[in-house]
Specification:
heterodimer; A: alpha+beta; Dna Ligase, domain 1; D-amino Acid Aminotransferase, Chain A, domain 1; Rossmann fold; 3 domains; six-stranded antiparallel β-sheet; elongated; B: alpha+beta; Alpha-Beta Plaits; two-stranded antiparallel sheet; two-stranded antiparallel ribbon; 3 helices; 4 strands; 25% strand; globular
């Protein structure tokens, strides 16, 4: 769940990160008054969740309050990557000597959080990584042990920053690491992090992304920041199919059979377990299949919950077959999932033996599960068939009609 | 709606035993049993949620309650 810049800065302010004077405004009059109150030149920044504001003309510089009011009127209607402005941020302009980049995110391969730091901030970091790799450091750290200033210092020093700049940057980047861990973020980024002409450092822009499932943990904070629980903050508005998936998942507290994302393919997916959803989704695509949906199933959902999800997926126009596949399961039971998908098929008015292209869930209670599948004539396979090969079988079956 | 995977048969003597009905409603994790008007009621909508834990079988007198797998 992404934060708007003004929300990110509100959180940064709580942790004493250095910020310029700023006001969130919702009218030209407020923009004029904010610029006058701040005093001196200001930046007028449209508040959208997407990047590319500068290129779209949604960030402008004003020397006077009247100019700030005019810029407010100009940036407000600008659609940036399909997004309309939530509000406008008026912020004091800074005299910048150098820009830096600091970002904390998860490294899926290392299975640890990583600090990315560069002394070439303000530009696309992928570009820095490609053309100036010596200007980008990657410092992994533990999410279990207390994170010290040493992590920040190592990351900053690795790109050649030393002396006063190193000493001043270290506590700022350290606080960013703490914010990342404390609020269950998937991204905490400051770009640019500017060194001013007088040697001070200041956060010019920030991006925060919170793990969606951690929202309830931080409900009080989100409430204080004015983020309503109904705001999905996704890359696009959810489809009716996805909303219905979320509704069905929420009916029953047992396990997960939801997190449905709609795609335009023709093969329905009931997938999950230990990261299996992403792997299996990729496997279907690699095998030439076109998924109709992504979903996650795990944590031993009830039969009713699995049946509800299956029925929903089969209700999608153009979806006649589903692939039921999971990684090797431990706490989720094969027989319970088997009952659920078969029940969902029957409720959808289709024959499970025809609608289930492949059932590949090995693990807990698989013997009982396989008995159920045999009873209904559903093709299944055990762990001797890889997830990739199972995906291939499903795609082949769909092609065979 | 009856279960399509699981059915449960209970002897009449068990079904009319309020104390046993209460015990069964407590041991079942998926709410298949309930005590209604002093008698045991089986909640058909929950039958397919049975996790085959056998706690109900152990709670009832030997042979008086049977969990039937309809797929066998």
């Amino acid at each position: 769940m992404r934060f708007y810049e003004y929300e990110a800065k509100a959180l940064f302010a709580r942790h004493d990160l250095p910020l310029g004077a700023r006001r969130v405004v919702n009218s030209a009059d407020e923009a004029r008054a904010a610029a006058a109150e701040i005093g001196g030149p200001v930046v007028v920044k449209s508040q959208v969740l997407s990047g590319g504001r500068m290129k779209a003309g949604a960030v402008r510089f004003a020397d006077t309050p009247d100019e700030a009011a005019a810029h407010y009127q100009a940036v407000l209607p600008i659609i940036v990557n399909g997004e309309r402005a939530r509000a406008v941020l008026i912020e004091a302009q800074s005299r910048v000597a150098q820009e830096y980049f600091a970002s904390v995110t998860w490294d899926g391969r290392a299975k640890r959080p990583v600090l990315l730091f560069s002394d070439m901030g303000g530009i696309d970091i992928e570009e820095v990584a490609a053309s100036h790799p010596e200007h980008l450091s990657r410092t992994h750290f533990s999410s279990l042990l207390p994170v010290t200033e040493r992590v920040a210092k190592e990351g900053i020093a690795a790109v050649g920053v030393s002396g006063a700049a190193l000493n001043r940057l270290t506590p700022i980047v350290h606080r960013l690491l703490l914010i990342f861990l404390r609020y269950d973020l998937t991204l905490a980024e400051i770009n640019p992090l500017a060194r001013l002409e007088d040697g001070r450092f200041i956060v010019l822009d920030g991006h925060l992304d919170m793990e969606a499932e951690a929202r309830s943990e931080h409900a009080a904070l989100l409430d204080e920041l004015g983020i309503d629980s109904s705001e999905t903050r996704l890359a696009r508005p959810p489809t009716a199919f996805e909303i219905e998936g979320a509704r069905r998942n929420a009916i029953d507290h047992r396990g997960v059979a939801g997190n449905v994302v709609e795609f335009d393919g023709d093969l329905g997916l009931v997938i999950g377990a230990g990261g299996g959803s992403l792997t299996l989704f990729d496997a279907i695509r690699r095998q030439g299949g076109r998924p109709a949906n992504y979903c996650e199933i795990g944590g031993n959902p009830s039969v009713a919950k699995t049946a509800n999800l299956t029925e929903l997926i089969l209700s999608k126009p153009g979806v006649e077959k589903i692939a039921v596949m999971m990684n090797v399961v431990s706490n989720t039971r094969v027989d319970i999932v088997a009952r659920g998908v078969i029940k969902g098929c029957l409720r959808a008015g289709v024959n499970p033996s025809e609608a289930i292209a492949v059932f590949r869930i090995p693990g807990s209670w698989e013997g009982e599960g396989f008995k159920i599948l045999e009873h209904y004539g559903v093709a299944y396979c055990d762990r001797s068939v890889s997830m990739f090969d199972a995906a291939g079988r499903a795609v082949a079956k769909l092609g065979a009609g | 709606m009856p279960g399509i995977f699981i059915d449960i048969e209970v002897d009449e003597a068990v079904a009319s035993d309020a104390e046993l009905a209460q015990k069964l409603s407590e041991v079942c994790a998926v709410d298949i049993f309930a005590l209604r008007n002093g008698k045991l009621e089986i909640i058909e909508d929950n039958l397919d949620e049975c996790v085959l834990c056998d706690l109900c079988i152990e709670a009832a007198p030997k042979g008086a309650l049977r969990v039937i797998k309809l797929y066998e």
